[in-house]
Amino acid sequence: MDKLLIRGGRPLQGEVRISGAKNAALPELCAALLTAEPVRLANVPSLQDVATMLKLLRTMGVQAERSDAQPGEVLLDARDVATPVAPYDLVKTMRASILVLGPLLARFGTATVSLPGGCAIGSRPVDQHIKGLQAMGAQIAVEHGNIIATAPAGRLKGARIATDMVTVTGTENLLMAAVLADGETVLENAAQEPEVSDLAQMLVAMGAKIEGVGTSRLRIQGVERLHAPAGGHRIIPDRIETGTFLCAVLATGGDVLLKDTCASHLDAVIDKLREAGASIDLGDDWIRVRAGGRPRAVGFRTSEYPAFPTDMQAQFMAVNVVAEGAAVITETIFENRFMHVNEMLRLGARIEVDGHTAVVQGVESLSGATVMATDLRASASLVIAGLVAQGETLVDRIYHLDRGYDRMELKLRSLGADIERVGGQRGAAA
Ligand SMILES: CC(=O)N[C@H]1[C@@H](OP(=O)(O)OP(=O)(O)OC[C@H]2O[C@@H](n3ccc(=O)[nH]c3=O)[C@H](O)[C@@H]2O)O[C@H](CO)[C@@H](O)[C@@H]1O
Ligand SMILES: C=C(OP(=O)(O)O)C(=O)O
C-alpha cells in the first residue's frame, strides 16, 4: 500500500497549476447521461474518483475515454446505456456514485443504485435525494441494499421540493432529474456551492432551462431532450486543492503563485488566511501567497457556501497547530470530521476535541512520526503537518488522498518539498 514519506522543514516556493474541481467533475461526468449526443469535458482532473466514475459509466455502456490529443479532456457518449445500474463494489469506493441516480431516472425512467453506507466522516444518508425524486413521481424501493427507482410512464414530473437541509449532491441529483422532467420544478434550500452552479451552467449549455443559478432557489422548466454543450464544457478550478496549497504555504513559511484558479470561490478561506498573517495578492486566475513568519491562530466555523467549507477544516487546522496562540474550530456539517486530530497529536500537536468543537493550542514545532490517513482531507492535513514537522513523517493509507488530489506529491515536489511516494506505484488514476 502506498505511503508518503516527507522530510519536513522546507518552505514551499515557486508556481503551481491548480487542477479542475473533483466535486464539479463528478456530477458533470454524470450529466453526460442526460443526452444521446457525445459530450466533451475539459480540465478533468486526473484522480482516483474520476477514474472510478469513468469505470462506473462504462459498466453501464457509456463510452467514456480520456483524449490522447488533449490533456485533461474526456469524451463521453451515452447513446446506448445497456444497464442503468450502479453496483455496490463501485459505490462503496465512492459515495458520489449516487449522482447517476437523477440523470438515469430522468432519461431512462429507471435506475438501480447501491445505497451508499456510512463513511469515515459521518453517516451521510441520502434520504433527501430519495424524498425529492419521490416528489417528482418516482417510485422508489430499497431492497437488498439497492435503491430501485422507476418513473411511472417513463418520465418524472416537475415538483416543488424543499430539502430539510442544504445538500450539495442532493441538489445536483434533483437538478439533473428536473431538467428532463415534465413541467416546472422548484428546488428550495438549494446548495449554492460553485460546483453546483458550474453543473447548472453546463446543463444550460445542453439546452436546460434553469433560473436562479447560484442562489438557494432553482427554478427549472423541464425539456424533452438535451444536446451536447457546444464546444464542450470546461470544469472550474478546484477551490479545495487551491485552499490546501494556500494552507501548506502559510504553514511552511513559503511564497507560491497558484495559477489557473479562481480566488472568488474561496473568499471565506482567504479572509481567514489573511487573518492568520498570510500576504495574499489576487488576479483573475491566480493567487500569490506569502507567509510572513509564524502564522497566528485563527478560529472558524464550517458551514455551507459561501461560508468556510468543511472540506478545508482539516487543512486549516494544520496551520493552527503550528500557529501562535489558540483557536476554536467548529465543524457543523459532518458529525465525525475530526479524525485527523489523533494523528496530529502523534506529531506533537496540542488539540482537545469536545463534540463538534476542537480547541487548538499552537506549538512552536512538530516532530515527524508515522501517521495514518482516515479520509481525503484528513490525509491532506497530515501532509501539511508533515511538511512542517522536523524529521521524517510517513503518511499511511494515502489511497484516501489519491481519491481527490491530482498528483499532489509531484506538485509539492516542484515547490521544493522533500516528499516521495513509497511502498508501490500510484493506483490507476483516470
Ligand atoms: C462529491 C461532493 O460534492 N462531495 C461534497 C458534498 O458531499 P455531499 O453532497 O455528500 O454532502 P451534503 O451536502 O449532502 O451533506 C451535508 C449534510 O447533509 C446531510 N444529508 C445530506 C443528504 C441527505 O439526503 N441527507 C442528509 O442528512 C449530510 O449527512 C451532511 O451532514 O458536499 C459536502 C459538504 O460541502 C462536501 O464535504 C463534499 O466534498
Ligand atoms: C468529503 C469529500 O468528498 P466525498 O463527498 O466524495 O466523500 C471531499 O471532497 O472532501
TrEMBL record:
<keyword id="KW-0670">Pyruvate</keyword>
<feature type="binding site">
    <location>
        <position position="333"/>
    </location>
    <ligand>
        <name>UDP-N-acetyl-alpha-D-glucosamine</name>
    </ligand>
</feature>
<dbReference type="GO" id="GO:0071555">
    <property type="term" value="P:cell wall organization"/>
</dbReference>
<dbReference type="GO" id="GO:0009252">
    <property type="term" value="P:peptidoglycan biosynthetic process"/>
</dbReference>
<dbReference type="InterPro" id="IPR013792">
    <property type="entry name" value="RNA3'P_cycl/enolpyr_Trfase_a/b"/>
</dbReference>
<keyword id="KW-0132">Cell division</keyword>
<dbReference type="InterPro" id="IPR005750">
    <property type="entry name" value="UDP_GlcNAc_COvinyl_MurA"/>
</dbReference>
<dbReference type="GO" id="GO:0008760">
    <property type="term" value="F:UDP-N-acetylglucosamine 1-carboxyvinyltransferase activity"/>
</dbReference>
<dbReference type="InterPro" id="IPR050068">
    <property type="entry name" value="MurA_subfamily"/>
</dbReference>
<feature type="modified residue" description="2-(S-cysteinyl)pyruvic acid O-phosphothioketal">
    <location>
        <position position="119"/>
    </location>
</feature>
<comment type="function">
    <text>Cell wall formation. Adds enolpyruvyl to UDP-N-acetylglucosamine.</text>
</comment>
<keyword id="KW-0573">Peptidoglycan synthesis</keyword>
<comment type="pathway">
    <text>Cell wall biogenesis; peptidoglycan biosynthesis.</text>
</comment>
<feature type="domain" description="Enolpyruvate transferase">
    <location>
        <begin position="7"/>
        <end position="410"/>
    </location>
</feature>
<keyword id="KW-0961">Cell wall biogenesis/degradation</keyword>
<feature type="active site" description="Proton donor">
    <location>
        <position position="119"/>
    </location>
</feature>
<comment type="similarity">
    <text>Belongs to the EPSP synthase family. MurA subfamily.</text>
</comment>
<dbReference type="GO" id="GO:0019277">
    <property type="term" value="P:UDP-N-acetylgalactosamine biosynthetic process"/>
</dbReference>
<protein>
    <recommendedName>
        <fullName>UDP-N-acetylglucosamine 1-carboxyvinyltransferase</fullName>
        <ecNumber>2.5.1.7</ecNumber>
    </recommendedName>
</protein>
<dbReference type="Pfam" id="PF00275">
    <property type="entry name" value="EPSP_synthase"/>
</dbReference>
<keyword id="KW-0963">Cytoplasm</keyword>
<feature type="binding site">
    <location>
        <begin position="22"/>
        <end position="23"/>
    </location>
    <ligand>
        <name>phosphoenolpyruvate</name>
    </ligand>
</feature>
<keyword id="KW-0808">Transferase</keyword>
<dbReference type="GO" id="GO:0008360">
    <property type="term" value="P:regulation of cell shape"/>
</dbReference>
<dbReference type="InterPro" id="IPR001986">
    <property type="entry name" value="Enolpyruvate_Tfrase_dom"/>
</dbReference>
<feature type="binding site">
    <location>
        <position position="95"/>
    </location>
    <ligand>
        <name>UDP-N-acetyl-alpha-D-glucosamine</name>
    </ligand>
</feature>
<dbReference type="GO" id="GO:0005737">
    <property type="term" value="C:cytoplasm"/>
</dbReference>
<dbReference type="InterPro" id="IPR036968">
    <property type="entry name" value="Enolpyruvate_Tfrase_sf"/>
</dbReference>
<dbReference type="GO" id="GO:0051301">
    <property type="term" value="P:cell division"/>
</dbReference>
<feature type="binding site">
    <location>
        <position position="311"/>
    </location>
    <ligand>
        <name>UDP-N-acetyl-alpha-D-glucosamine</name>
    </ligand>
</feature>
<keyword id="KW-0131">Cell cycle</keyword>
<keyword id="KW-0133">Cell shape</keyword>
<feature type="binding site">
    <location>
        <begin position="124"/>
        <end position="128"/>
    </location>
    <ligand>
        <name>UDP-N-acetyl-alpha-D-glucosamine</name>
    </ligand>
</feature>
